[in-house]
Amino acid sequence: MAALAEEQTEVAVKIEADGPPTLLPPQAGDGAGEGGGGTTNNGPNGGGGNAAAASSAGGDGGTPKPSVAVSAVAPAGAAPVPAAAPEAGAPHDRQTLLAVLQFLRQSNLREAEEALRREARLLEEAAAGSGAPGEADGAGAEAASALLSRVAASAPGPAAPDPPGTGASGAAAVSGSATCPAAPGKVGSVAVEDQPDVSAVLSAYNQQGDPTMYEEYYSGLKHFIECSLDCHRAELSQLFYPLFVHMYLELVYNQHENEAKSFFEKFHGDQECYYQDDLRVLSSLTKKEHMKGNETMLDFRTSKFVLRISRDSYQLLKRHLQEKQNNQIWNIVQEHLYIDIFDGMPRSKQQIDAMVGSLAGEAKREANKSKVFFGLLKEPEIEVPLDDEDEEGENEEGKPKKKKPKKDSIGSKSKKQDPNAPPQNRIPLPELKDSDKLDKIMNMKETTKRVRLGPDCLPSICFYTFLNAYQGLTAVDVTDDSSLIAGGFADSTVRVWSVTPKKLRSVKQAADLSLIDKESDDVLERIMDEKTASELKILYGHSGPVYGASFSPDRNYLLSSSEDGTVRLWSLQTFTCLVGYKGHNYPVWDTQFSPYGYYFVSGGHDRVARLWATDHYQPLRIFAGHLADVNCTRFHPNSNYVATGSADRTVRLWDVLNGNCVRIFTGHKGPIHSLTFSPNGRFLATGATDGRVLLWDIGHGLMVGELKGHTDTVCSLRFSRDGEILASGSMDNTVRLWDAVKAFEDLETDDFTTATGHINLPENSQELLLGTYMTKSTPVVHLHFTRRNLVLAAGAYSPQ
């Protein structure tokens, strides 16, 4: 046992809902997903909270799973460790404390033992209870083991807060996750033998107080917050919703159904309007049995609700709860909430409202601190030959004008490396084929004819209406060169149209191909079968509605994702299915090719996004962390990052290299259905069912704008090729154009704003709105800017 004092070990007992616990070695999170790590319950200086081992580590891509983590205490030579200890009121709490003290003594961790005693003010009782050192190996050890097993089996009483300002690092904390020193060999046996009912650990809702007092506890806190100063009231009001949910669930879990019903009816009207959908789900949970299979509730129990509060407001709350000895509420705060404390002025109601609304509260500040390479990769240098028609068509004055924009838009990218760009070889990207180079040359030529957009020069909008789409249009995509349009339908078909005079042709049969001269210049033309030429091709293969479609950049392939749980890759040469990628177990809501081809991403109802390569059957990365469906996915222009929008009302940015989540954006009040990156890679625009479009600075991890105007779900977003205009399409049958240059100028991204989230969004939606274009009765499903900045929009006519 003495060996434990030398090194710090960590062992996690991971308890699956349907099987016995398994013992896991220490690990720092899987490559795909968020790595687990020790989290402190409070701000930088740990102003009052209990440090518990993370309950979200693991090799399954960081999916939040309940686990009982047991970590050994710091070495004996370490500084004295203040620990959050139970108040010595209840005999059960006293026993627990004595067990921990006895174990510290056994392990020769004298300083930690002394610190714990001092903190708990239990010197006399602890000394009497723990016995002489010589007895520790005999019956005393068995008693300690039995008591420790009780600690693991049930969450102890409410923890007394640390004194303000004390560090919470390395503390031996007795909390809901039962952190206590133990020999690795014993942990598994303790949890297995003494914890037959796994759901008890899963629930974390052990009855702590008198059920009839819950309404009094809640109204007491409500009265205190409503009577506090204005500057603190807005911040402390954030507590209402998570406390309401956890107190209600605690009553339901402990089968106090009448009290739960009365509690819900009395206080559900006080919650913010954007939580109404969650409250509807909550109101249907009236019995303990209802809680077991409910995903929303599992999320609430396993992920801590994050609140960002200033230190002054937090101290005020702590003082109130201590004075009232309101252990019930304090216990929920400690176990189920993560309070992110910052120093400085409390935030105003507007600032808080801008950032809250997601299923798990705000993002922790640390979540948006890692470096993101948002710059663009260096373009390969390709010589652009001038066409004869170009030379003839331009007069002498026109020629230099024509070359200038070409040089600005293309040349500058290839000559100078963007300081914020990732290293060129950070992730392996496919090499350019000759056909890709030709396409780039075509792109550059088109760019020279591009219209410069702005408030005084708005783009034309060409709307493709799908008439008589009785099959139900569920997805649309347009190729980069705007030559093909694909539609995914609810009847499980994918239909591809040519929108140029050039018809779609399949490759000839094998027997006919063998007769062709392979050396001829026009071999690519000869292999096509003229007899198959048509404007429309229908692709059959899915067995459910097709919710996502994406063309490859070289226009040779098309991806489609479906309710049948598969993603299919189709050849646009033969118009047949090449591969069916099976990884998702539930409907796949969206899929998208990387801007460089080869890689693609998919997201679905199973709450994870997966990164694939076209030549691999299995996903390369699994991005796990969202608490609800992943509705939309989008690659960053440099292909090193993937953004996902979810029904948990958050947007996450994932690093393709290691699978880590590098940004979490909260602020939407409804499920997110559209995402788009600005062409320079610096900004992200997101649209949701709340009808708002939010703008984000990726480098600083901040919200920088809010565009209000739509009255229904924003289904599609797209920046113009130069990034000067943002187009948004919605279920309210409108396309709106916004001034992106003005929206992103003069951004407040100083260190203070970044550190505390004091966001001051200008109320300038009307100034930024450049135009609103109504359709007769067609929801806008997709938007696309051509290489010359013409807007293409698409949707299915829906007669009223």
TrEMBL record:
Biased composition (Gly residues): 30-50
Entry-linked InterPro entries: LisH, TFIID_NTD2, TFIID_NTD2_sf, WD40/YVTN_repeat-like_dom_sf, WD40_PAC1, WD40_repeat_CS, WD40_repeat_dom_sf, WD40_rpt
Biased composition (Acidic residues): 384-395
A family per Pfam: WD40
Chain intervals for the UniProt region annotation (Disordered): 1-69, 154-175, 384-436
GO CC list: transcription factor TFIID complex
SUPFAM superfamilies: Taf5 N-terminal domain-like, WD40 repeat-like
Bias kind Basic and acidic residues: ranges: 407-418
Residue windows of the WD repeats: 466-507, 539-574, 581-612, 623-664, 665-698, 707-739
Residue span(s) of domain TFIID subunit TAF5 NTD2: 209-337
Biased composition (Low complexity): 165-175
Keywords: Nucleus, Repeat, Transcription, Transcription regulation, WD repeat
Secretion signal span: none
Subcellular location: Nucleus
One GO MF term: RNA polymerase II general transcription initiation factor activity
GO biological process: transcription initiation at RNA polymerase II promoter
The protein's role, per its UniProt record: The TFIID basal transcription factor complex plays a major role in the initiation of RNA polymerase II (Pol II)-dependent transcription. TFIID recognizes and binds promoters with or without a TATA box via its subunit TBP, a TATA-box-binding protein, and promotes assembly of the pre-initiation complex (PIC). The TFIID complex consists of TBP and TBP-associated factors (TAFs), including TAF1, TAF2, TAF3, TAF4, TAF5, TAF6, TAF7, TAF8, TAF9, TAF10, TAF11, TAF12 and TAF13. The TFIID complex structure can be divided into 3 modules TFIID-A, TFIID-B, and TFIID-C.
Record-stated family: Belongs to the WD repeat TAF5 family.
Name of protein: Transcription initiation factor TFIID subunit 5
Native source species: Myotis myotis
